[in-house]
Amino acid sequence: MSESGLSAPPAFLADPFVMALLNRLLTDLDKGRVRPLRVNNKTLPALFDYDSDNTQYLWSLVVSLADEYAVFSIQMVRQRPGVETYEKARLTLKPGGESLLRQWLKRPREEAYPVTWKRAVQSNALCFIDAGTALLAKPIRRQGQTAEQVVDGFVQAAKLLCDPITLRALSAKCFWADSKFLDSREDLVRRLLPNADKYLLTRPLLIHVAMGVTSQQVLFVENQDTFLQLVAAQSHSPFLNNMTLINSAGFLGASSRIRQRGAT
Questions:
Q1: Which sign, positive or negative, has the C-alpha torsion 133, 137, 141, 147?
Q2: What is the enclosing helix (H) or strand (E) of 234?
């Protein structure tokens, strides 16, 4: 027993197979997955490496974690002849298993993302028009980034909006060089950031046009490769020759914006 009253880690804890298994169990918990871990060649591939003589030894370590250390329980499934006895077995963490693993692996429980998001927004409330209410309504997640880092992107954006700038340029400067991060969040930016209506520029549309002989209809084509294929076929097709083909270069809402004066 350790000073905390929890079992000391086993000598085989450093085994890569054991470390991977136990870290996976904790990672699943941190992500809100509470279902048992089913043993198969995807979850624990080392147990199904038939070129290795080590599989039975590795399974004995799993059994030891269950029987001697009470980390989890093992629910076996009746197997047909020729199938590993442990295939499809279910590993379910016991009530004290999580605390034990967190001590062994030195992985304290992480705060839920909404909690850290709320704290990050509230600590920067003065940077936002509405004190961050729009951000609090729905946390924004970005793989590989913490809640604090995402909120800090909006804080930096608020500081940058003192000169004219496009949404994509602002996004690239404040959100990990990702110029498209704010593409679907322009309304949020305008509600949230001081001076957004004054300094945030609408990007002019860049379009390519190919006019047919008669051009009685208009066809918007977002994909450039498709546009070029249609242009190449236009002179040989009565149908396409009756159209003006417009490539909107992937601009969001181009077909409606192009009708507005000054959009191009």
A1: positive
A2: helix 224-234
For helices 55-67 and 16-30, the axis angle rounded to 10 degrees is 50
Give CA–CA dist 140/162, Å, rounded.
24
Domain ranges, ordered by start, for the chain: 11-105, 113-201, 208-257
Strands (E), 188-249: 200-201, 208-211, 217-221, 243-247
Read off the pLDDT of residues 188-229 as tens digits, 9 standing for 90 and up: 999 999 999 999 987 777 788 899 888 788 888 888 889 999
What single string gives the DSSP state of each residue in 10-33? PGGGGSHHHHHHHHHHHHHHHTT-
148: helix, strand or coil: helix
The structure's pTM equals 0.53
Which two structure tokens, joined as six digits, stand for 166? 């496009």
The DSSP bridge pattern shows strands 90-93 and 37-38 to be: antiparallel
37 in helix, strand or coil?
strand
d(CA 255, CA 222): 10
Distance, CA of 232 to CA of 242 (rounded, Å): 14
Whole-number Å distance between alpha carbons of 153 and 50? 49
Architecture of domain 11-105: Orthogonal Bundle (1.10)
